[in-house]
Task: inverse folding
């Protein structure tokens, strides 16, 4: 069903190269900021509603109040699964490839694409990725290593530094730090 959907949705997308424009990257930023990306699959804005979920996420609410938060965000073709969403949010491109999650045999991940990690690394940011799943899943570790991340940790690495098995659940967590 996914393959049929992909073919149907992409049959008319042969004009992608007409609309794709490489964005200019500013050379000078007066005050570089620290950036934290949270990938929170399945988390929706209703969870911030204290009437529906009183006291559910107080620390995340504090972060949200001090941050830029986007609304009315739509999912696009090529961004509907974990790794595709990460690629789309980091690189501004859909991930239109088919492979199984543990049979990812490439040596680099989208080597000719400039992603946020590449830009920030060139601006002297130190980039880290931490995720609750294994880094081998869908080529996730390879993606981040290929795009400027100095430290990439998944379930195995995180459990080595914190042997408490309750630290990671079946869904895990994901956090990226960009430190300048």
Result:
């Amino acid at each position: 069903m996914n393959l049929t959907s992909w073919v149907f949705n992409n049959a008319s997308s042969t004009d992608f190269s007409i609309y794709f424009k490489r964005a200019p990257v500013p050379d000078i930023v007066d005050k570089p900021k620290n950036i934290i990306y949270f990938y929170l699959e399945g988390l929706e804005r209703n969870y911030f509603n204290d009437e529906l979920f009183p006291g559910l996420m107080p620390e995340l609410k504090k972060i949200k109040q001090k941050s830029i938060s986007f609304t009315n965000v739509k999912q696009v073709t090529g961004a509907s699964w974990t790794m595709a969403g990460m690629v789309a949010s980091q690189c501004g491109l859909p991930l239109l490839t088919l492979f199984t999650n543990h049979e990812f045999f490439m040596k680099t991940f989208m080597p000719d694409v400039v992603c946020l990690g590449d830009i920030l690394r060139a601006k002297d940011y130190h980039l880290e990725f931490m995720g609750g799943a294994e880094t081998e899943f869908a080529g996730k570790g390879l993606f981040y290593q290929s795009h400027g991340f100095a430290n990439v940790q998944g379930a195995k690495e995180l459990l080595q530094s914190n042997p408490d098995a309750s630290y990671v659940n079946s869904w895990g967590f994901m956090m990226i730090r960009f430190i300048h």
Residues 21 and 51 are 44 Å apart (CA to CA).
